[in-house]
């Protein structure tokens, strides 16, 4: 519900403050912003030059005085001031000028420390929030993917973002078992850079590596080999060069990070109480997050666990949609917080 105060509006906002992408959900409107979590800054004047997509285009292409920064790493804030400024920009862009301080729900990976949680709350408060609540990413992802988390049924969510993979078993609205690892889409990009450097003596940038991953990257062999030509710098001559990379190269390159993700799923399954494990076996594993779009990951998970793995309908938006839906219960959250129930939120 939007509260009208004079000519200004009080809005409630849900933010998926991701390592790779930030999404903003405004109550009553849905997702209104989806931008890369990147800002470009003039180092001498400390002035913002670009934020979001415009700044992402500058990654790896900036002259000496300009830096393009991703202020979140591995799912948590690594540069506090920049995060605060970026968040402020995204919230203002989402709400327009005529807004009063919004109530904000932000999601965080399930394994974050109290200090990391505090940093998110402070950045959001400084960015103009009236009050900030936190929600754990797997809970938000499950709600966003349409799971009724209040049922006494076990659901397994594997949320693979840019910086973190959160594996969680949820039942009766809470997390029963979980594991958060700092291996996700970004690690896959780094693994590709390393592989291309070793095999082809060629240096490629972050963006080319992500392009390779999205286009021909796979966790399970394709029926038909795929190829992509990629440009980089020859490490021996220092000159530009082109190489044709295959999907088998990608399979090799991604073996390590993908194995770590599968092992995290295994480990959570081993710790899951038998009744809930039986539910998961019947319902399957639900995959969310952009990293879950890696081709063949569902097949691999199915092969390694014996449980079917299914991609959510909107994998990249699930967390933001879930965060947004939880805005519906913000009044309840406020009440429950004063009652001291701060285990799931904040
Ligand atoms: N089609 C695709 N195939 C493989 N990976 C993809 C695809 N589309 C996006 N990704 C990857 O998904 C990742 C970003 O996912 P997402 O937006 O869910 O993460 P995030 O919420 O920003 O990160 P985190 O939750 O770790 O903070 C990036 O590493 C991106 O390269």
From TrEMBL:
The keyword Nucleotide-binding applies. ATP binds at residues 162-164, 210-213, 290-293. GO terms for biological process: cell morphogenesis; regulation of cell shape. Its main location: cytoplasm. InterPro entries: ATPase_NBD, MreB, MreB_MamK-like. It comes from the Bacteria. One of its GO terms (molecular function) is ATP binding. It holds the Pfam family MreB_Mbl. PANTHER family: CELL SHAPE-DETERMINING PROTEIN MREB. Forms polymers. Belongs to the FtsA/MreB family. This is Cell shape-determining protein MreB. It comes from Paratissierella segnis.
């Amino acid at each position: 519900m939007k509260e009208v105060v004079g000519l200004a509006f009080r809005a409630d906002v849900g933010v998926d403050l991701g390592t790779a992408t930030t999404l903003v959900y405004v109550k009553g409107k849905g997702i209104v912003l989806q931008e890369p979590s990147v800002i470009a800054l003039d180092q001498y004047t400390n002035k913002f030059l670009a934020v979001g997509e415009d700044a992402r285009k500058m990654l790896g292409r900036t002259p000496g005085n300009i830096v393009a920064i991703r202020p979140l790493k591995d799912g948590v804030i690594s540069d506090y001031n920049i995060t605060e400024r970026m968040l402020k920009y995204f919230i203002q862009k989402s709400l327009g000028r005529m807004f009063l301080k919004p109530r904000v729900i932000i999601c965080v990976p399930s394994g974050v420390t109290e200090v990391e949680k505090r940093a998110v709350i402070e950045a959001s408060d400084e960015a103009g929030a009236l009050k900030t609540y936190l929600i754990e990413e797997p809970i938000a992802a499950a709600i966003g993917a349409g799971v009724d988390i209040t049922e006494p049924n076990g659901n397994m969510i594997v949320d693979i973002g840019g910086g973190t993979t959160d594996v969680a078993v949820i039942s009766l609205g809470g997390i029963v078992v979980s594991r958060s690892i700092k291996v996700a889409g970004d690690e896959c990009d780094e693994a590709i850079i390393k592989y291309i450097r070793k095999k082809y003596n060629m240096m490629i940038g972050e963006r080319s590596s992500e392009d390779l991953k999205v286009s021909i990257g796979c966790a399970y062999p394709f029926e038909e080999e795929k190829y992509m030509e990629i440009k980089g710098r020859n490490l021996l001559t220092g000159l530009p060069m082109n190489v044709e990379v295959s999907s088998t190269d990608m399979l090799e390159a991604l073996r390590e990070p993908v194995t770590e993700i599968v092992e995290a799923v295994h480990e959570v399954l081993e710790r899951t109480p038998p009744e809930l494990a039986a539910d998961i076996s019947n319902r399957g594993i639900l995959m969310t997050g952009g990293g879950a779009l890696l081709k063949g990951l569902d097949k691999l998970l199915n092969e390694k666990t014996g449980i079917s793995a299914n991609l959510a309908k909107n994998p990249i938006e699930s967390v933001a949609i879930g965060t947004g839906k939880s805005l519906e219960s913000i009044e309840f959250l406020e009440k429950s917080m004063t009652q001291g129930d701060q285990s799931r939120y904040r």
